[in-house]
Design brief:
This protein has 153 residues and is of the alpha+beta class. It has two helices and six strands. It folds into two domains: 94 residues; 54 residues, SH3 type barrels (Roll).
Length: 153
């Protein structure tokens, strides 16, 4: 009985150590991710500052203030959309690779317009019903390309 208690205590101690190590690794990964996001934001903000300074100089030099206002609007609103779509595209490219071929029920496909990946649940004429997350979406077959999970090297 004493040996079972000692074994149990040793197993509990080992389990606590494993849990502590896993918790520590998760915390380190979270901090690493936060630092990466912060670095991206700093780069973005420095670029925006440089561009806005150039806009101020342009504002002072030009007579056509409307043109500068339109440039500022495009910079502030369209730049953020562009960056988020580039990140989404890059993220999608990392996880899946295009294999092409005929679209069939059960295959993974990527939508051309927003690069989202879903599974073909049904084909209705020239359209396909995809399961993307929890929602089914109907999409034209010609805007889809067959993909597969990228092999980790």
């Amino acid at each position: 009985m004493k040996t079972l208690l000692k074994e149990n205590e040793a197993l509990q101690k080992e389990m606590r150590q494993v849990l502590e190590k896993e918790t520590h690794q998760q915390e380190m990964e979270r901090l690493r991710l936060q630092n990466h996001i912060a670095a991206d934001k700093i780069i973005y903000l420095k670029d925006m500052e440089r561009r806005l300074k150039a806009m101020v100089i342009e504002w002072r030099k030009t007579e056509d203030k409307e043109k500068v206002v339109n440039m500022i609007h495009a910079l502030l609103f369209k730049q953020k959309e562009k960056i988020s779509s580039e990140k989404q595209q890059k993220k999608g490219n990392e996880k899946f690779e295009e294999v092409g071929g005929d679209i069939k029920v059960g295959l993974k496909v990527r939508m051309a317009q927003n690069r989202q990946v879903g599974i073909v649940k049904e084909i209705r004429g020239k359209k396909a019903v995809l399961q993307v997350g929890v929602m089914p979406i109907t999409v034209d077959l010609k805007s889809l390309v067959v993909v597969k999970d990228r092999e980790l090297e």
